[in-house]
Amino acid sequence: MKKIKIGLIGAGRIGKLHGVNLAHSVAEADLYAIADPYMNDATRAWAKDLGITGIYDDPQQIFNDPEIEAVFICSSTNTHADFIIQAAQAGKHIFCEKPIDTNLDRIRQALSAVEAAGVKLQVGFVRRFDHNHKEVRDVVASGKLGAPNIVKVTSRDPDHQSMDYIKVSGGIFMDMTIHDFDMARYLAGSNAVEIMAYGAALSGAGYEKYDDVDTAIVTMKFENGALGVIDNSRAAHYGYDQRTEVMCEKGCVQVSNDLNNQAMISTGEGVSIAKPTWFFLERYNNAFIAEEKAFVEAIINNTETPVSGIDGLEPVKMAMAAALSLREGRPVRISEVENS
Amino acid sequence: MKKIKIGLIGAGRIGKLHGVNLAHSVAEADLYAIADPYMNDATRAWAKDLGITGIYDDPQQIFNDPEIEAVFICSSTNTHADFIIQAAQAGKHIFCEKPIDTNLDRIRQALSAVEAAGVKLQVGFVRRFDHNHKEVRDVVASGKLGAPNIVKVTSRDPDHQSMDYIKVSGGIFMDMTIHDFDMARYLAGSNAVEIMAYGAALSGAGYEKYDDVDTAIVTMKFENGALGVIDNSRAAHYGYDQRTEVMCEKGCVQVSNDLNNQAMISTGEGVSIAKPTWFFLERYNNAFIAEEKAFVEAIINNTETPVSGIDGLEPVKMAMAAALSLREGRPVRISEVENS
Amino acid sequence: MKKIKIGLIGAGRIGKLHGVNLAHSVAEADLYAIADPYMNDATRAWAKDLGITGIYDDPQQIFNDPEIEAVFICSSTNTHADFIIQAAQAGKHIFCEKPIDTNLDRIRQALSAVEAAGVKLQVGFVRRFDHNHKEVRDVVASGKLGAPNIVKVTSRDPDHQSMDYIKVSGGIFMDMTIHDFDMARYLAGSNAVEIMAYGAALSGAGYEKYDDVDTAIVTMKFENGALGVIDNSRAAHYGYDQRTEVMCEKGCVQVSNDLNNQAMISTGEGVSIAKPTWFFLERYNNAFIAEEKAFVEAIINNTETPVSGIDGLEPVKMAMAAALSLREGRPVRISEVENS
Amino acid sequence: MKKIKIGLIGAGRIGKLHGVNLAHSVAEADLYAIADPYMNDATRAWAKDLGITGIYDDPQQIFNDPEIEAVFICSSTNTHADFIIQAAQAGKHIFCEKPIDTNLDRIRQALSAVEAAGVKLQVGFVRRFDHNHKEVRDVVASGKLGAPNIVKVTSRDPDHQSMDYIKVSGGIFMDMTIHDFDMARYLAGSNAVEIMAYGAALSGAGYEKYDDVDTAIVTMKFENGALGVIDNSRAAHYGYDQRTEVMCEKGCVQVSNDLNNQAMISTGEGVSIAKPTWFFLERYNNAFIAEEKAFVEAIINNTETPVSGIDGLEPVKMAMAAALSLREGRPVRISEVENS
Questions:
Q1: Burial profile D129-161: b = 16 or more Cβ within 10 angstroms, e = fewer
Q2: Whether the predicted interface score ipTM is above 0.85
Q3: Which helix (H) or strand (E) holds B333?
Q4: pLDDT per position as a tens digit, B67-103
Q5: B162 to chain C nearest CA, in Å?
Q6: Where are the alpha helices (DSSP H) in chain B?
Q7: Do A251 and D274 touch (CB under 8 A)?
Q8: Cβ–Cβ gap B227/A216 under 8 Å
Q9: How close does chain A come to B329, measured CA to CA in Å?
Q10: Mean pLDDT (whole number) for B305-320
């Protein structure tokens, strides 16, 4: 079997997650090297245990290795664009975690480098590979329900991130809703043209101190005429709540959450069912493997990757428009933020 | 058993529905008289079969009858305010179908007359009595989930009304969403302060000809800080879709649709379950009986009615704000429409 | 509208239930007379309130009244056969509560009288009219799933009857499982040929004192080759549990319980849904109305009633076979009890 | 990390499944050697790709290797007992696929050898590790619902095995129901004392030619007083149907099937949901990994394995009793087959 030699850049939580999957669950991947400027003994041992040959501090060693065909960029967001450009110039195919950058020009520069080099790029919007959301998309895309009219995304985290994290997160829309902006575009099959955001700090955890919110409802219009709505919470203490729905001309497709099990317990006091799977590591576990496989297969078969550079760009515009809308209390057209 | 003698005004579809229920399903009601300016033989026969004694063309005969303690006003909307005033002056308790009027001043005049007369008034927001939505409200109102953060109402009709009806309907927000505005207030336990509406004519049925839409997403902020969203369609061909959800600080309560039955049919081709109950007559059948009982019991026990005059006023403001928002493409504060 | 004049015999719990429905919810029924040997002032007042003209102690007054076309026999089981015979001889159509009798010869005599008189007879197996079980039957009977292979009936009461009742109940199979034997035949579309019963007194309530059980699993073979199983409990404290399922050659149809509402409440502690509707008055409320309508319509349209005399006879044989099986610890063929 | 060196015996479908899991998904396992008398190039390549060092034709090479601490016996059933004895005598811990043998004496000899050697034995009843069935067991075992009264197991395969397989399968009870007998014991927390089996060849596939059935309902009594029922089909063309339920004194716990996704698609024609996961490889995928981890952890922590030798013995008795019951058309006590 042809295996793609892969270099992994960044060995934080998400980098390690991709590393384990590439080593164990993606048959056509050969996880060959890893680089992290903060490389330490624990990571070194973890990498050795996975059978990784090259263990480096400097990503350049990956870019310079002609054996390596593809890279996974899992470093901090502010390094993504640079690494994409370097990887492209080195002729490597690129999987990059989301977002590519929070600045549109930087994203465009990275996409230009990719295009110039003729390499493949896939952006890490993993939820597209979830069996539930994918089913919604597939049904809509099949056209059997007619054109989409209403797109709904419910996306709530089970608990707060630390306030240290929130402080530097870039705000709820760029940090959290970015996934939902991608999902809404993906389900609608169309770009947003206008966005209106309501938000509030309701949890008492102090988001208002950082000019941020913990609760939001964002509505939007799409080019194809569909309307969309996303609702978010940073602290849905009952669990990770990830539901999508598209009402089309002839019907509606909706998905509820995966649950921990299918049990129903009935007593005189009441009836209980299982809670949703805890958080994204549980809920999207198989989706991560599916996105990695899709990337490797796109290389092997020389086909388009399923999440393109444009897919990395548009949600960032949506997040910028939402932030501006919340700030100014008015709907914001995507065209207003195009040049920021 | 003490029975309340009731006069019914208006024998159209909704009037007849209340008539049958009062005659058969509300033990403490004595449906005693009916008046309709368009009284005809069929209605006369129908009324006799129900055992109604007084069958009139002129509502005055009901207002003038000292035996009658309460009236159900089920005539056309433009007559509601006048009939409320006359009934109040005659000392009758009043059940009035929604909306009281589409003009705020007319509503206020009617409410003043009710207050001056010291009679009871209940407005026909029947969905509050649905076992599902009521459960959501009861759980939120119990406080055990903490304060509400996000209120969601999905409300879609299974098929178009006639375009003749749409032409004079007053627009989707006053005609259809009015129920959902009431529901959102009821679930949030708070008044709206600002509303943003998106709408579109997507069905091809021609709503745009009457400056109306068939699809809408309306977002709102409540006085208590909660955010809300309503999504509407005039033509959800898969069925009458009526779901509500409130996410609170400590948890979430949501209700799905009643289905025609609990069957699941599994074959090699796929798995099917029953469709939602067809339309409001099926879905809210028991809710109508419950609202009628609640009104009669409020009279007998001399307690507050569960849907007050203010509950009749506020949703009209919300509908006006939503219409203005859609027209001007901006969020509208309730205070902007207060004096219209 | 043609209305059928009906005489009701027996004004106990089930008689009153039929009375209220016939008066209020079956448009083509005219509840005209009632007879109960234990007639008292409360029942008299109840009957007057329903608008019943003839209120008697003696059922003969109903049989003798030529105005009356049909009777509802809701008296105690030991009177059913006699009243059927008398009603038939008086030319009245007959609705009789289940079981017709616990003695096969007495049932056969009653059925002969019905046949000789050419009147209609419907036996009160109300569950056939439940929207859920009826859907299972309709799907199986449509043939689209092929022949039935496995028929499953779960039937559990939410709480014990009094031990005074149990003492004279005739045992679980004749008293409680009789409904399930009918359901199994109805769903299988075939008669049982052999039955094996396991039973146990597990609740601690003392059924063993009366040689009875509170828990049972009964298996059976049908003439058409299908296998069946019924499981029963007298005390499923979590609620009235009434589920059916038929696996056929090409698919499976199953129904779960109706719930009090469609709410789901999610918190950090867990997720709860509504309990099943409490007991048969709640669960089978609409089914009672449907069976009454079906009987009245069979008279008006001169068609077969949907639950025939044979349908009254066969479940009694099944109950007898089950009782013998439990007593002797062996499978019992229906033919063994045919002549008892 | 301490890793257990494992030798795998038998590289058929189930052996390969364990091999992949041990190599990739059980961190504390070191899959070190494999032996299969039918070793071929494809298997050799597969083993190399997994990083297995020792690739043999002869299981003796595994028993003789002092480095190896544990074996997985995945060869054909008739070799299980011999290999258990040899492995035990070599001091290896043993995971053995079900059933140990179809002869009680052979099983007892194998268990004696295990006991004499003081090694651990785990039998491959994988369904105990399914998240659904395990939840049922955990709830029952917690005691919070009181003693079990009714144990129900639905277990149906989505399609026929080949008739060549059926011919030598040992019959439905030993081949297929064996899993359900284990499940029933596990859920009841008690041994069966008597069994009654009904069975029929209804599919038209020809099971009757081999004196076998494709459809069965098996009832049983447990030592603790609970009653149980298993229903089986060899060809539930709608999918792999694996549901369990235990009704206890104070409540009921039941699990439905895992579905392919949580989607609901509603159109004017009807409402569809996803099918159950296709077959045991999909449904019990995670359960296989969990059983392997449990075995390895029992070795590392020197604790009891979760599925013991007795757990391997009792279901075989139940299968023998069921087969005798079906043959003779009568209930069979477990004690009748104890000495066969």
A1: bbbbbbbbbebbeeeebebbbbbbbbbbbbebe
A2: yes
A3: strand B332-333
A4: 999 999 999 999 999 999 999 999 999 999 999 999 9
A5: 31
A6: 13-24, 41-49, 60-63, 77-89, 104-117, 131-142, 163-167, 172, 178-188, 280-283, 285-300, 309-328, 334-337
A7: no
A8: yes
A9: 8
A10: 98
